[in-house]
Amino acid sequence: MIWALYGICAAAAAYQLAALAAVLRHLFRRDPEGRSWPLVSVLKPVQGSDPHFEEAIATHARLDYPDFEILFGAASEHEPAMKAVRELVRQSKGIKIKIVVGREKAPNPKVAVLMELARHAKGSVWVVNDGDITVSPDYLRKIVTALETPGVGLVTCLYRPVPSGWPAFWEAIGIATDFAPSTLVAPLVGISEFGLGSTLCFRAADLERAGGFKAIRAFLADDYQLARRLTLGLGKRAVMARVVVDSAIRYEMWADVWRHQMRWARTLRVCRGGGYLGLPVTHAGLWAAVAFGAGEPALAAGLCLLRILSGVTAGFLLLRCRAALALPLLPLWDLWAFCVWMAGLGGSAIVWRGRRMRLGRDGRLQD
After folding, report:
1. Would you place residue 21 in the very low, low, confident or very high pLDDT band (cuts 50, 70, 90)?
2. Which of 14, 64, 130, 329 is surrounded by the most beta carbons within 10 Å?
């Protein structure tokens, strides 16, 4: 029994070392030089009113890029976020900004808006990011440059969680110290179809070849499905740009965090299949607790220290997220993550944007 524990702990330690190496590799990687600056269409579907939304969209109007347009889309002109969008249009003289009210219908409302925005986009390169994303002035230059790399069909980027309230702070710990390094490890283990909603940058012609937004209209994980079609479907790969954006997160209650995590877990299960079953090996804090309970305090301490080192390197040195400095909470997050994983093994019910829905076995949304 003790040898089985040693084996699991060794695997957990190996993952943390791989995550640390992946983060350091990304942190010190050099950016390629940009050679051309095509017209870029930034497609921003908006719904509701996210924290810091006004400032987030204002940063898009301050982008340092030769030629771009911003297309905001909503399912209705009465969306709460549209007031801030109209004010941005009024204030931003000289910037090409357009508001599009969607007529398309789809099981995934966000994709329905994207289908409508696609009709109006004029750029040869498209960028899709979430409504609450805050960007730096060099954002477009960095991701467009990364797209020029031979064989690349999609560029995505990491995001820095900006929490409001303690429930959001708790999830920020997981995003910064667990989720972020896992996305950097993915290419090292042969996963090429990754893409984050924080940024999806691709060529319009490639999307058309992949079936357009219409091909993903029924799926919940539209970012993953889009990445899958632009990479595996076209024989290309995805890369992580060396730019970090901000994403505001806010929850009123702890139950909201649990529901969000369950949606992620069940979506990942249907998307990744067998890969989901291997996730507990990444929960070093869990195996440290097991080792301590089995009378192996030195093994437990070593795993905890390795988990903290990996988490702080990713969460603070790379993302500059202060939540990553809550050192004792990093191993505890792994215990929470394991509980979420266990609950995510079964069931198909999710809550998304206040709607109760079900996930089909292939990830399609079902009312």
Report:
1. very high
2. 130
